[in-house]
Specification:
Blueprint (H helix, E strand, L loop, with lengths): L2 H22 L8 H24 L5 H31 L5 H24 L1
Helix pairs in contact: 1-2, 3-4
Amino acid sequence: MGKNKFIQELLISLAFIILLVLVANPFDFWMPSTLTMTAAMLLVATFGVFAVFVWREKAADEREKLHRLMAGRFAYLLGAAGLTAGIVVQSLSHAIDPWLVISLAFMVLGKIVSLIYSRQNF
């Protein structure tokens, strides 16, 4: 992957993380409702650009394919661990947000579907 493309992907990823923090509004003091809606809209748009980068990425050789595969595996495990931790913490207060469960279920379902698809087609 070229250095320029890597920098673009990195900048899009950082913008996505910043927008996630803004939308989460952890201290509930910096965002009025109109800014919240704008940030949510920008979050969706940024995720779309991020998804295009991920979907179109092509590895030049086997080593780069392995690096992409390991990055995807690491990201999946961190996402699943974060959602699981959120479910455990919220279950201790007896108030589990269903979106955590739904998100984790979609991640696991996506992994299963991907494995089935790849075994049948590759």
